[in-house]
Amino acid sequence: WGGEYAFPLLLLFGSLLLSKCLRLRRLQLVTYCLLAAFLFSTLVTRTGKIAFGRIRPIHAENIQVPDHFTGPNLNPKYHSFPSGHTSASFAVATPVFSFHPLVGAPALLGASAISLSRAHLNQHYPSDLLMGFTIGLLAALPSASLLRRKIDRP
Fold first, then answer.
1. What b-and-e string marks burial along 19-28, b requiring 16 or more CB atoms within 10 Å of the CB?
2. CA torsion, points 22, 27, 29, 32, in degrees to nearest 10?
3. Does residue 66 have a cis bond before it (omega within 30 degrees)?
4. What is the chain's alpha carbon radius of gyration, rounded to the nearest angstrom?
5. Closest CA to 4 of 84, 110, 123, 75
6. Predicted confidence (pLDDT) per residue in 61-99, tens digit
7. How far is CA 9 from CA 2, 55, 58, 66, 78, in A?
8. Which residues contact 3 (CB under 8 A, 6 or more apart)?
């Protein structure tokens, strides 16, 4: 779980630290929005992993079974769908992009790299990544919308 949450927590704690040190109210709002999006995406993703029970590609290859969903399953070998790394990183990077595109663009690139690395490491199927991206984006949309409204007002 450390790898799954390192990127989002780095952005969260960095934002919180910066907002407290510089006493920036708008950045504090961003931090709370990041936290809300992160928690929502994590809750949805963790629930999905247990509910769907999809075997990870690396384990499917090792025991030579086809890709399949088993239904509710607590075994981490069956927690491929959806990708938690992808949902968490996009849930946090999207509001950052909405708040400050210059800072958010590298955050979105980082989220994309994290996502693609999961397929490269044979931990997820492409559909796992797509669903993780969708969850992360949907979790971030209310925060991104709120940030645009609050920031546009003087």
1. beeeeeeebb
2. -90
3. no
4. 17
5. 84
6. 888 888 888 899 999 899 999 999 999 999 989 988 888
7. 10, 27, 27, 35, 25
8. 85
Tens digit of each residue's pLDDT (9 = 90 or more) over 11-25: 788 888 888 888 877
Catalogue the long-range contacts made by 146-154 (C-beta closer than 8 Å, 24 or more residues apart): 146/29, 146/33, 147/29, 147/30, 147/33, 147/95, 147/98, 147/99, 148/98, 150/26, 150/29, 151/26, 151/99
C-alpha–C-alpha distance, residues 10 and 92, integer Å: 10
SS3 string, the chain, reads CHHHHHHHHHHHHHHHHHHHHHCCHHHHHHHHHHHHHHHHHHHHHHHHHHHHCECCHHHHHHCCCCCCECCCCCCHHHCCCCCHHHHHHHHHHHHHHHHCHHHHHHHHHHHHHHHHHHHHCCCCCHHHHHHHHHHHHHHHHHHHHHHHHHHHCC
Q: Which amino acid is at 23?
A: R
**Structure-block tokens of residue 145:** 């919308």
Task: Give the Cβ contact number of residue 53 at 10 Å.
Answer: 20
